[in-house]
Amino acid sequence: DQQVKQNSPSLSVQEGRISILNCDYTNSMFDYFLWYKKYPAEGPTFLISISSIKDKNEDGRFTVFLNKSAKHLSLHIVPSQPGDSAVYFCAASLGGGTASKLTFGTGTRLQVTL
Amino acid sequence: GAVVSQHPSWVICKSGTSVKIECRSLDFQATTMFWYRQFPKQSLMLMATSNEGSKATYEQGVEKDKFLINHASLTLSTLTVTSAHPEDSSFYICSALPGRRIYGYTFGSGTRLTVV
């Protein structure tokens, strides 16, 4: 049972444009969400997170939006850069932001073209 | 920043042999480490939670006798894949939390295991 889903396995965006990566979850008890970026043969690196008490969090070019009623979150990258090309995972947890297990989505491969 | 070192980065072994993967927190102590497994084009699946000085907690469906976890110190956890078979070929990643905030999870660089 995949509790966190990323329905788009891949996405191609032109440099300078906005990249929007989507993530859906089924467990309404999840209260903290994170986005990770991963290159091949490397571990994931943390990008940005959001608590369920917020609907938006912004950090530089990255913004995460949370729609709790729809159980949906999205990551916006603007402007997109070639170095953003990687696999992006969303993850969810039950710990309210403290140490707890992460449930990962299936990932979306983003390719930013010149 | 906090660093988690994982070794080896890749390993090829013969079917039936055992392989040990190490995960070290280099500049912090980690009472808890996590082991994940990733199949090609799939999600990172949590295998087990490694607890320093006590038994690991395994996720449902993960064979305890197959994947032995030892967390003997505050900076080292090991995963041993015993009697490896080709279906154990995968990418294994560990992570640790150098604090109390979940966004601080630091991941190792992963180990690509190929069983032939």
Properties at a glance:
heterodimer; A: 114 residues; mainly beta; six-stranded mixed β-sheet; five-stranded antiparallel β-sheet; 0% helix; B: 116 residues; seven-stranded mixed β-sheet; four-stranded antiparallel β-sheet
Quick structural summary:
The complex is a heterodimer of chains A (about 110) and B (about 120). Chain A is mostly beta strands and about 110 residues long.
What can you see in these coordinates?
The complex is a heterodimer of chains A (114) and B (116). Chain A is mainly beta and 114 residues long. Chain A has no helices and 11 strands. Chain A has strands at 4-5, 10-14, 19-25, 32-38, 45-51, 56-59, 62-67, 72-77, 86-93, 103-104, 108-113. In chain A, the strands form 2 sheets. In chain A, strands 2, 4, 5, 9, 10 and 11 form a 6-stranded mixed beta sheet that branches. In chain A, strand 7 and strand 8 form a beta hairpin. Chain A is globular. In chain A, 35% of the residues are buried. With 116 residues, chain B is mostly beta strands. Chain B contains no helices and 11 strands. In chain B, strands 2, 4, 5, 6, 9, 10 and 11 form a 7-stranded mixed beta sheet that branches. Chain B is globular. The N and C termini of chain B lie far apart (37 Å). The A-B interface holds A 2, 4, 9, 32, 34, 41-46, 49, 89, 93, 95, 97-107 and B 4, 6, 9-10, 32, 34, 36, 41-46, 49, 91, 93, 95, 97, 100-105, 107-110, 112.
List the helices and strands and how they pair.
The complex is a heterodimer of chains A (114) and B (116).
Chain A: E1 4-5, E2 10-14, E3 19-25, E4 32-38, E5 45-51, E6 56-59, E7 62-67, E8 72-77, E9 86-93, E10 103-104, E11 108-113
Parallel strand pairs in A: 2-11
Antiparallel strand pairs in A: 1-3, 3-8, 4-5, 4-9, 6-7, 7-8, 9-10, 9-11
Chain B: E1 4-7, E2 10-13, E3 19-25, E4 32-38, E5 44-51, E6 57-58, E7 67-73, E8 76-81, E9 90-96, E10 106-107, E11 111-115
